[in-house]
Amino acid sequence: MTEPQDARFRRIVYSSIATARADDETQIDILRQSRANNGLNGISGVLLSDGKRFLQVLEGTPEAIAHVFAQISADPRHAEVRTLNDELDSRRIFSGWTMASMSDKRESDAVRERLQVLLRSAPADIRAEFEDILRTVG
Asked: Is the pTM of this model over 0.85?
């Protein structure tokens, strides 16, 4: 997923509460669906879940992110969808991943590395959200 240097990407970080316990099978279904849809729409990111809540980073064109975020907000599997950060950037942090996850042990170290890049400049409340969920998923 290579993009021109001057491309403007939108990055949203959001959290939500799972309306039902998101067991491993549910999380795998969500990841599979996200990867397929995101690949078609040029979206990259990471999805973390501890079974009770979701924490996700989405990156892509402003139009694609607006569309997918509207779908997520209307998805009955999510409640209390809360935008933690919404910004434009010229680079992607999660390029190459249509949707990374800590549930894939092969990706875990690389996901943690990229999250550290994201969190370096993130406000304290966003860092705290990620650190909290990372304690339970990894």
From this structure: no
